[in-house]
Amino acid sequence: MKTTVTHDATAQRYAVDFGDGNIAWVDYSHRGNGVIALEHSEVPLTLRGRGYGAAMMNQVLAMIDSEGLKVVPICGYTRHYLEANEQWRHLVS
Asked: Which structural domain range is residue 48 located in?
């Protein structure tokens, strides 16, 4: 699966383009001191239940990690994903 992840700091959104016209995203808000709260995530309805949410989170968390940020998972899916994937737990503030 070829994906492209972008960070729109003005909209406070990370977006993942799956290359087929489908885009998933994670919205966040700033908490200060290099911490962001992951408020909402969404995968297009037609892609749900097929691993696209996990692919989205993996790409977004990799970008957040490269930016040196920490996260507070507010969104239920992001919280679940972080609990289930130990390799990203170092990002949790």
From this structure: 4-88
